[in-house]
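Anyone able to model this chain together with phenylalanine?
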Amino acid sequence: MPNQTLWGHPKGLYILFFTELWERFSYYGMRAILVLYVTAKTTALNPGMGWNNVSALELYGWYTMMVYVMSVPGGLLADRFLGQKKTVLLGGFLLCIGHFILAFDTLWAFYTGIVLIILGVGGLKPNISTMVGGLYKSGDVKRDTAFTIFYIGINIGAFTAPLIVGYVGEEINWHYGFGLAGIGMAIGQIVYMFGQKYLKTVGNFVPVIKENGIRKKVKLTSIEKDRMLVLILSFIIVIVFWGAYEQAGGLMNLFARDKIDRSIMGFVIPASYFQALPAFYVILFGMPIAYLWTQWRKMGKESSSLFKMGIGTIIMGFGFLLLAKAASNASISFDGKASVYWLFAVYLLHVIGELSISPVALSFITKLAPVKYASLMMGIYFMVTGLGNKLAGMLGEAAQNTSEKTIFISVFIFCVAFGLVLVLFVKKLKKLTHGADVDSNTNPIVEIS
Ligand code: PHE
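re: yes, here you go
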């Protein structure tokens, strides 16, 4: 049997890492040009669909929500019929076909492509994340680090795609751009297919016991029920966090375009380039932040997932305080604009928050969900992320009737207060996890349900 670990982690982790990196490359690449393509004039040199902005943004909102909502059926399909490994394979195929269909310049291809991508992400994204957790035994402290490594892969895809696919789509031809996203997905699919030998123990279908041909109702134990309760609470954190954070692509994007002086040394940075900044920060700070949390845990300090999520929400909230200050500077400056450095600082705080929440939440779910509901719970997690995205859009709309500053201050106050409450109640909530959320070397015992 070949050596199954590399740099302290199962080799399967690296297969999942590269598969997801390319899947995200295709997703964020396509997403970067979607709105630009549908709003481009039909008579342009590189013709688009000629839609107005409102319809385009509406499509965008529904699309970004639906890809994650479809994670619920994606998770169910894995739990009930196929197992995660095969569902990821299926999702990957749908994604390859969907992206390649978008390379054709006809209306039916456009809608068919979008639907296939929604179904494909639904099949792939939650299940590949569950598989990462499945590579580790319960109580293994390496799991959080594994999710950080995985998360860095996601962001390498998210960082490079808008720059590469965006350039090809905008400057050469939209459909070449979509096709390029498809090639990225195909690379991911090939990595996954050839990496199967490292994934033998993970993502397999666990059949539900049947009695006399009738599906047996599996009752949750009281420990499992408690854990489900904390999971549901953590979903609220997820909605709050992404509802604030995901304003990056909407309100903050417009704010960067209109209220920030984006010139540095005579070069004006296009507003859209700031979309790659958070992903860049994740790549840069992913490991250092995971390391800091490990050191923190080694010092015997509180470092449960819920605690990290609370702290993450607070730090991200402070990003909004800086944004409010930038908005107020802009309003009193002679040209109505604030310094570009605010944005660098704001996104840094947002990403420190993100790194304390997003990979941690993925890991948390794989620790707490009862095995028979593992994929479903992951699916629901992605669904609530979709709701967070929608909330972010709604907050952006609300800012059109008041001012950015009011929205930024309100988000700051809410996030900080919410995070503090979480931190205050963390001990109580942790009890409900019954040791599944291992947080310290002195507490290695995990209650098996
Ligand atoms: N950048 C993350 C990703 O693409 C955003 C995200 C987090 C999406 C959680 C869904 C769920 O994976």
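The chain has 14 helices and eight strands.
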